[in-house]
Amino acid sequence: TGKTGAYVIPIIERINPEKNTIQAAILVPTRELALQTSAICMELSKHLNLRIMVTT
């Protein structure tokens, strides 16, 4: 989670929860990594009223 957090935290910091648009997209090479990354994003942003979506 350290490596994922290194790029997820700056992305989360730049998101404006007031805007109802897609503000970031993270592309990863495998389904498993997508699920892991989305779980970390959800954990890091759980108090920020953000919606995280994963699609594979």
TrEMBL record:
<dbReference type="Pfam" id="PF00270">
    <property type="entry name" value="DEAD"/>
</dbReference>
<dbReference type="GO" id="GO:0016787">
    <property type="term" value="F:hydrolase activity"/>
</dbReference>
<keyword id="KW-0067">ATP-binding</keyword>
<dbReference type="GO" id="GO:0003676">
    <property type="term" value="F:nucleic acid binding"/>
</dbReference>
<dbReference type="GO" id="GO:0005524">
    <property type="term" value="F:ATP binding"/>
</dbReference>
<dbReference type="GO" id="GO:0004386">
    <property type="term" value="F:helicase activity"/>
</dbReference>
<keyword id="KW-0547">Nucleotide-binding</keyword>
<protein>
    <recommendedName>
        <fullName>DEAD/DEAH-box helicase domain-containing protein</fullName>
    </recommendedName>
</protein>
<feature type="domain" description="DEAD/DEAH-box helicase">
    <location>
        <begin position="1"/>
        <end position="53"/>
    </location>
</feature>
<dbReference type="InterPro" id="IPR027417">
    <property type="entry name" value="P-loop_NTPase"/>
</dbReference>
<keyword id="KW-0347">Helicase</keyword>
<keyword id="KW-0378">Hydrolase</keyword>
<dbReference type="InterPro" id="IPR011545">
    <property type="entry name" value="DEAD/DEAH_box_helicase_dom"/>
</dbReference>
